[in-house]
Design goal:
The chain is about 80% helix and about 0% strand. By secondary structure, it is an all-alpha fold. The longest helix has 29 residues, at about 65-95. Belongs to the UPF0382 family.
Length: about 120
């Protein structure tokens, strides 16, 4: 599990930098201010949680089922939250908004909240 957390954290960190540069340079001309802010929110949350995964990869006990759930909830949360935001923003910029992604974003947020909650429980 530690390798999954470390590799996932590194991949999410790498892609957050790429997406951030993509948003700052290429999308700046294509997106309105609100869309750009939403895209940046996805990038920020992705990077914050990538760093958390890296720290957890060095700290958690891979033998504990709870630790596995924490890592999985962070990974799923990042994918659902940040990537649904990217999809919503990019599709709306092309006037083909993928509305089915709207309900996915809060599910990703819920997974992130669950991961943080389980982490608190683990510390207690």
């Amino acid at each position: 599990m530690d390798k999954i957390a470390l590799i996932s954290g590194a991949i999410f960190g790498l892609t957050a930098v790429i997406f951030g540069a993509f948003g700052a340079h290429l999308l700046k001309k294509k997106l309105n201010t609100e869309q750009l802010q939403s895209f940046e929110t996805g990038v920020k949350y992705q990077m914050y949680h990538a760093i958390v995964l890296l720290v957890l990869g060095f700290q958690l006990n891979q033998q504990l089922t709870l630790d596995n759930y924490i890592v999985y909830f962070f990974i799923i949360g990042i994918l659902l939250f940040s990537f649904s935001i990217y999809g919503l923003v990019l599709s709306s910029a092309n006037n083909k908004k993928l509305k089915f992604l709207g309900p996915i974003t809060p599910l990703g947020g819920l997974c992130l909240v669950l991961a943080w909650g389980l982490l608190i429980y683990r510390f207690i």
